Amino acid sequence: MDISTKLASAETAKVDCVAVGVYADGELTPAARRIDLASKGAVRAAIKSGDATGKRGTTLLLRSLAGVAAPRVLLVGLGKREEFGDKAFGEAVRAAAKGAGAGTRELAIAATDWIVKAGNGPRDGAWQARQLAIAARETVFRSDELKSKKDDNATGPARVHLLLEKRDAAAERGLHEGVAIANGMALAKRLGNLPPNVCTPTFLGEQARKLAKEFKLGVDVLDRKRIEKLGMGAFLAVTRGSAEPPRLIVVRYNGAGKAAPIALVGKGITFDSGGISIKPAAGMWEMKGDMSGAAATLAAMARIVREKPAFPVSAFLCLAENMPDSRAQRPGDIYRARNGKSIHVDNTDAEGRLVLADVLTYAAETGATHIVDLATLTGACIVALGEHVAGAMGRHEAWTRQVRDAGQAVGEEIWPLPLHGEYRKLLDHPHADINNIGGRWGGAITAGIFLSEFVPENVHWVHLDIAGPAMATGGWRCYAKGFTGFGTRTLIELARGFAKA
Question: What is the predicted pLDDT for the residue at 120?
Answer without folding.
Answer: 73
